[in-house]
Amino acid sequence: MTARLAPRLTSLVAAALALGLAACGGTGANPGSANGDSDAGGAVSFLTFGDPEELAAYRELIAAYEERSSGADVQLVEASDRTDLIARVATSIAGGSPPDLFLINYRFYGQFAAKGAIEPVEERAKSSTELDLDGFYPQALDAFRWQGQLHCIPQNISSLVVYYNRDLFRRYGVPEPKAGWTWNEFRATASALTRDAQGRQAVGQESETASVVATYGLGVEPTIIRIAPFVWSNGGEVVDDPERPTRFTFDTPPAREALEEFLDLRTPNGVIPTDVEVEAEDDEARFANGRLAMLLSSRRSTPTFRTIEDFDWDVAALPQFREPAGILHSDAYCMTSGSTRKDAAWQFMEFALGPEGQRIVARSGRTVPSLRSVAESEAFLDPDAKPANSQVFLDGIPTIRRVPSVSIWPEIEDAAEGILENGLYLGQPVDEVIAELDRVTRPLFARAQSP
User: What is the pLDDT of residues 259-292, one digit of tens each?
Assistant: First the structure.
């Protein structure tokens, strides 16, 4: 399942941020030097999380930086997952000892930016001789602007794609996905690849007999970020105002139609695993074990899938309703306003986000580099490294959109997920799902602070 904040934890994060910033006396640089460094000594702490292959890439990045920069010292602090990372950032701010840097998705940074916990880096970036903001994809940069200021700098610009098991497609004579394929073709493909233990097509299985399915056609999480690109593709909108949202807009005809099609993937179509099966074996593991023909995921899954030895796999563009659409997946380096090593932290950021640093992490398979020059180079488009069709990620950038990064967005996503799970796995009628989404989330939208 997707790592997400529980409602109680999001409240604790907000409380911790308020307490920590009040104790610090506000926002901005600490006293001690013109650049806010009160203690230039010691290691720069860099907090992140990831799979073993991803963390290995960050260790390689740090080693390369320390070798190039005499006396440099960066400490990698490993969180267990995103929930742990966000909790650590919040509680360390409250305790007066925040990490100097942390890596976070644009959907989750707003809660920290709204409280002044992140140091703006616009001026540093503009005066840098190592970085040129004009070389970054603007879709990723714009996601990290708060009140007109660039607060964090993105390392990647992934999009949602379809990972697929080529061996299963070949075994059952199903055509591989092609650019521009439709939602109906996508659903039919998932049906054709949902098979029982004897290899027979197992479409239309009722939930109580779904255990006969040995290989499912598709894996997808019931989350806003998985549904959003299909709403956009159908000409709809997810919220009423992308910059200052006050409500979800799934009640509009295009959005409702896309949501209903998505929820029908389990009941009545039966092409995705049940909730019980997902709890027992998550979709990424099921794909890696050869029991899932297709999986919707971002570039994050690539390092793990590169360890697969039993079958061939590749990636394809998302299917579409009326027009192509994608959703931004982007993580950025953020410097805490309470850091006592801002200059040293910035120097590491410059290296990590420059051409050499981005090439190191890109070779791990983890990122679609945010620098155009690296994204279009062999460091990313390596013909000898899977997926063979990495160009799909770049082709989708022009149609990438993003969900709001308002301060309360993590709570909104969390509240929505349980409701969407009921719609997908329990077959709750779409109009009931829409009404419940509105009832539960509208008060949350009312509390949001906008960029």
Answer: 999 999 999 999 999 999 999 999 999 999 999 9
pLDDT of residue 42: 87
CA distance 389 to 381: 8
Does pTM surpass 0.85? Answer: yes
DSSP for 300-320, written as a single string: GGHHHHTT--SS-EEEEPPPB
Q: Report which of residues 298 and 1 the model is more confident about.
A: 298
Alpha-carbon Rg for the chain, nearest whole angstrom, is 22
Equal fold, 7-157+330-388 vs 159-328+406-446: yes
pLDDT in tens, 429-449: 999 999 999 999 999 999 999
- CA 22 to each of CA 14, 120, 431: distance values in angstroms, whole numbers, following the listed order: 12, 19, 43
What confidence tier does 37 reach under pLDDT thresholds 50, 70, 90? low
Q: Residue 177: what are its φ and ψ, rounded to 5°?
A: -60, 145
Q: Are 235 and 254 in contact (CB under 8 A)?
A: yes
Buried b (16+ CB within 10 A) or exposed e, 246-277: ebbbbebebbbbbbbbbbbbbbebbbbbbbeb
Question: CA–CA distance from 328 to each of 28, 166, 334, 440 (Å)?
Answer: 29, 26, 18, 25
Residue 41: pLDDT band by 50, 70, 90 thresholds? low
Positive/negative CA dihedral, 133, 125, 298, 433: negative
Q: Which residues of 340-350 are buried (b: 16+ CB within 10 A; e: fewer)?
A: bbbebbbbbbb
Q: Which of 126-135, 163-172, 202-211 has the lowest mean pLDDT?
A: 202-211
Cα–Cα distance for residue pair 99/97, rounded to 1 Å? 7
d(CA 328, CA 241): 17
Whole-number Å distance between alpha carbons of 213 and 195: 6
Distances (CA, A) of 349 to 128, 274, 330, 335: 11, 42, 16, 9
Q: What is the CATH number of domain 7-157+330-388?
A: 3.40.190.10
Q: What is the Cα–Cα distance from 130 to 1, expressed in whole angstroms?
A: 39
Per-residue tokens: 260: 């209903």
Residue pair 362/156 in contact by the 8 Å Cβ criterion: no
Considering the segment(s) 159-328+406-446 as one domain, its CATH architecture is 3-Layer(aba) Sandwich (3.40)
Check pLDDT > 80 for residue 186. yes
Looking at residue 140, what DSSP letter applies? H
